[in-house]
Amino acid sequence: NRWNEFMYLRSRLTAFLHEQNIRAFRFFLINQTDTHRFNRGALLNVGFLAAQSYGCDYLALQDVDLIPVHHNISYRFPSPGVYHASSRDVHPRYRYKAFFGGVLLLQTQSYALLGGFENGFWGYGGEDDEFFRRTMIVRNKYKASGNFSVTRPEVAESKEERSRIQYWEHNHPQSVKRDKDKQFMHRERVKSRGPHALKFECEKVYSADAVTSNDTIVLDVQLHCDYEQSPQCSTDWLQSIQTQAANQH
Q1: Which of 16, 83, 116, 156 could be bridged to 105 by S-S, CB 3.0 to 4.6 A?
Q2: What stretch of H or E contains 189?
Q3: What is the CATH number of the domain that holds 224?
């Protein structure tokens, strides 16, 4: 299913990029092949390293199920800082104030300045909230100079008018379930921030033309996890927690 979602995204997003006269780009598909729980922050860090090695000067950190459909969503070279393309005013689902997920665009220098994502969030959620807090700290630090800003798409002023405009297509089948279990305290999380603190193995880099075309790079990666330090990365740990919770009810 994820591969089909990516191929759909690739087709639609390529057309969208061409409409904005963006011709030089690559898709980096980072595929987690280990048996641990999903770790979005760590995979984004791997993607940063891959993009950097190919000489990319900016990144679009892209959820595979979000497809831009409105011309006010920009994928052009961003100013220093973070451009939140799928902010709460335009996201088809999430509206809470501190929402910072979906699609972010930033220069590789800005990503390095922020230190990348935390590697210790296993399961969906948490990594973007933590990234948002650090982004706000850096923004406030450079506020006087204006050398780092957080920007969002221009939208209609009234909430009623915005509700009639579609900015994004949300291509997420209801049958696809996400690992959202949060039954562990964040203080138990071993802090490991950024791409250079991440331990992983790149099993395979697919030759692009063998997969789809020369604009796509696919990496199969295995993330490292120390079960003693971070038991929450294990699917067995998750199942035991869920069993305990079920027995309490």
Answers
A1: 83
A2: none
A3: 3.90.550.10
- 202 DSSP 8-state letter: E
pTM score of the predicted model: 0.87
Place of tokens 């930033």: 106
* Alpha-carbon gap, residue 27 to 218, rounded angstroms: 8
What range defines the domain where residue 57 resides? 2-247
Q: What is the DSSP string of 89-156?
A: TT-SS---TT---SEEEEEHHHHHHHT--BS---SSSSHHHHHHHHHHHHHHHTTTTT-SEEE-----
Residuewise pLDDT in 10s, the chain (249 residues): 788 899 999 999 999 999 999 999 999 999 999 999 999 999 999 999 999 999 999 999 999 999 999 999 999 999 999 999 999 999 999 988 889 999 999 999 999 999 999 999 998 888 999 999 999 999 999 998 989 999 999 987 777 787 788 999 998 766 555 555 554 444 455 567 899 999 999 999 986 555 556 789 999 999 999 888 888 888 887 676 666 656 666
What are the start-end ranges of the E strands in 7-160?
27-32, 58-62, 66-68, 81-84, 103-107, 149-151
Quote the CA–CA distance of 187 and 191 in Å, as a whole number. Answer: 9
Q: How far is CA 211 from CA 26, 44, 145, 222, in A?
A: 14, 21, 45, 20
Distances (CA, A) of 47 to 126, 143, 231: 19, 28, 25
> How is residue 150 written in tokens?
């957080």
Number of domains the chain contains: 1
